């Protein structure tokens, strides 16, 4: 059971006569940081007393008088200016713990009212191989999916792939003009990916060529503005300082832009075959766009090729999903919604929600300057149109109550307008949430790229982490007191589990809105807030049972009970009880890091317990059994928690 939620609801009951808004004040019951204040603390008396103009300590005493928690707590204490300190009763806590010992759900009750939740995650554009930029949505989305499902919601994981956009125009063009037939026969997706890179490099080259002189002009202008501003700078003038500062950053921004343009240009010009290709295809960007337009217009050849390419592209990304242990309930990408787009626009027009502006069809959202364009001047539908069709489908066909979009923060504006538009359209009763996240950075603090500036393929990222994990596993196993324990095959399997787990965990443990630096050494550290540490904690417990020759199922059903003989047993039990609270927390805010924090605290709590309390060597049989039960419960909570985050454990490492 979620003890915190239970306490809050008891507080809410007690507060009903004292405030019209009991829930807000009940939410001020929190777990304590320091056990000397009890297990939970409520600080609602102070703000409530202020509101009512009464004495906070007296009000705290009054709340305590109304509180009905004697079945689970010791009598609460009022402390300091009016804090209410709460300590669970030991008999209640052991009772709960003993119940959880034999409960396959570890004390986590399924939600009373399951929702139908669609989680839109991963969603790569499939014309090119998956890269580091797809990691966060994939990992975060899958963790939310697993937690929501475990909590009893009806969840659909939908991979809303980009299978209809400009990238397909690029590979269609490349296929028609540059294809290496033999390479394509050997490895179709590899060759299509090469085409994608080639076409985008060549069109990028022409764009850069056109942009470069303009950027040089901008730089010259900015530089002369800056010189003038510096020469005429009045002393001690704040606003002049500001202007100067702004000019300096502008100059350095344009310099950086020029450097990257030059790099793009040089990459082509330094290679005679590339240069020749670029020269013979000056209109490549336009022609690739035309291929997309032809595909959208139903052109026979492009449709045939598209039907051939998409399954090949999907098979390639499936390899990554298999390795990451991710399955979707549906993969309805942009192409799936294509047949519905004209009707969506017609519906908006018929309802008077969209109007023509400059040839485009736009939704004007009250209070928003920018219109939401659902059909462009040239007749093409947009990302917005497709997302609107998606909402309608998810509501009508899938009966979704809640739709979570696990997508990069850079798309925030799109989702803000999309959700506003959906409200106008009549879907205001549905919960639409952009579960946004920040960027993965390299050690230089810029978006993570290879040294030559290319995006990092997801496959190679996984390979590198697994290779590093293998080194750690080898060293650890070689260094065991009795010598090596694992076969080569077992080491390889452990390395895969540890390497993939490390990447996922490092991604999940950060506040999702923050950017974070990708650091393989840190994420694989055996000590610290890492999957590796948690996986070792699990294997350590498994080791206790192995060494003791104890079967865990037999132990659980053996009728032994958890008893408290040491404060650390109690502390660990309380921590294990809080699993349910952590899972509810994850879903309340769509934050898997609440669960990683919880698991880290649990592993630490176990560690201190295990240092102080002997287990296998404990002479008193009842105490030994009790401690073994706590070890078993810890292992199951850690393994289940990791599983809900999409990570595996190993019995032996
Ligand atoms: N394919 C898109 C991209 O790579 C993400 C799609 C997210 N989902 C959605 N319904 N818009 O940017």
Task: Explain the overall architecture.
The structure is a single chain. This protein is α/β, with parallel strands linked by helices. The chain has 4 domains: 3-87, Arginyl tRNA synthetase N-terminal domain (Gyrase A, domain 2, 2-Layer Sandwich); 116-163 and 311-441, HUPs (Rossmann fold, 3-Layer(aba) Sandwich), CATH 3.40.50; 166-299; 459-644, Orthogonal Bundle (Isoleucyl-tRNA Synthetase, Domain 1). The protein has 26 helices and 13 strands. The protein has helices spanning 3-15, 22-26, 45-52, 56-66, 90-101, 135-150, 166-177, 181-186, 188-231, 238-269, 272-280, 284-296, 300-324, 334-337, 341-350, 383-396, 412-427, 458-478, 488-509, 520-523, 531-548, 552-556, 567-577, 579-589, 593-612, 621-644; strands spanning 29-31, 40-42, 77-79, 83-86, 116-120, 154-158, 354-357, 360-363, 372-375, 402-408, 431-437, 440-441, 516-517. The chain has a 4-stranded antiparallel sheet, with helices on one face. A hairpin with a 2-residue loop joins β7 (354-357) and β8 (360-363). α3 crosses α4 (56-66) and α12 (284-296) packs across α13 (300-324). The longest helix has 44 residues, at 188-231. It is globular and about 85 Å long. The mean pLDDT is 95.
Poorly predicted ranges (pLDDT <50, ≥5 residues)? none
- Terminal CA distance: 32 Å
Overall CATH class of the largest domain: Mainly Alpha
What is the CATH topology assignment of the largest domain? Isoleucyl-tRNA Synthetase, Domain 1
| Bound ions, cofactors and other small molecules, one mention each | arginine
